[in-house]
Write a structure and sequence with these properties.
The complex is a heterodimer of chains A (113) and B (116). Chain A is mainly beta and 113 residues long. Chain A contains no helices and eleven strands. The N and C termini of chain A lie far apart (40 Å). By secondary structure, chain B is mainly beta. Chain B contains no helices and eleven strands. In chain B, the strands form two sheets. In chain B, strands 2, 4, 5, 6, 9, 10 and 11 form a seven-stranded mixed sheet that branches. In chain B, strand 5 and strand 6 form a beta hairpin. The chains are: A mainly beta (113), B mainly beta (116).
């Protein structure tokens, strides 16, 4: 059973600080990794995609992937109250197989003003 | 570009009834996936359709079914509704490239189904 694990939180971070969210996955053959943000009562919104080891930066967001250790992380710099949401990690398996995307249950992030 | 649309947005049904939900993907996207989201189980994959063919299926009973039309619009159907089917049903579309890396999914607003 392929799994994606996240700490459910809540993770409380002061405004302006760096929020660090982590995710581990069980399928070593996984190739594509995504971070979604979901506000309460809303649908998930894609914020980052990463496919190779290392860092991928987009504005205040940085996704980090370490396939050897099977973890993905999301860093949010200069955290804002508007970043308060649940962050979902999603992992897709091998490229050439019809493999579904598996989501973690999410980490609730709370930015303290 | 218009996003993913889902109808209806809210639905109340009674046990034993059936329901059909609709999803229109982003223009140009040929892959549509359906998910069930509940507070306890999180986002759970139901099935994926690509070019009118079911490509992937999650671990849900046969009461849950779907289809995709030639214009990539998709419907999912739940027959003989149970109380436990109350959930947010999300549709996501993707520009699926066979063998390619790009598999970014974009979600619709969801249909909130309440079974009484």
């Amino acid at each position: 059973q392929k799994e994606v694990e996240q700490n459910s939180g809540p993770l409380s971070v002061p405004e302006g600080a760096i929020a660090s969210l982590n995710c581990t996955y069980s399928d070593r053959g996984s190739q594509s990794f995504f971070w979604y943000r979901q506000y309460s009562g809303k649908s998930p919104e894609l914020i980052m995609s990463i496919y190779s080891n290392g860092d991928q930066e987009d504005g205040r967001f940085t996704a980090q992937l370490n396939k050897a250790s099977q973890y993905v992380s999301l860093l949010i710099r200069d955290s804002q109250p508007s970043d308060s949401a649940t962050y979902l990690c999603a992992v897709k398996g091998r490229l050439l197989r019809d493999d579904k995307i598996i989501f973690g249950k999410g980490t609730r992030l709370h930015i303290l003003p | 570009k218009a996003g993913v649309t889902q109808t209806p947005r809210y639905l109340i049904k009674t046990r034993g009834q059936q329901v059909t939900l609709s999803c229109s993907p982003i223009s140009g996207h040929r892959s549509v996936s359906w998910y069930q989201q509940t507070p306890g189980q999180g986002l759970q994959f139901l099935f994926e359709y690509f070019s009118e063919t079911q490509r992937n299926k999650g671990n849900f009973p046969g009461r849950f079914s779907g289809r995709q039309f030639s214009n990539s619009r998709s419907e999912m159907n739940v027959s003989t509704l149970e109380l436990g089917d109350s959930a947010l049903y999300l549709c996501a579309s993707s520009y699926r490239v066979a063998g390619g890396l790009s598999y970014e999914q974009y979600f619709g607003p969801g249909t909130r189904l309440t079974v009484t």
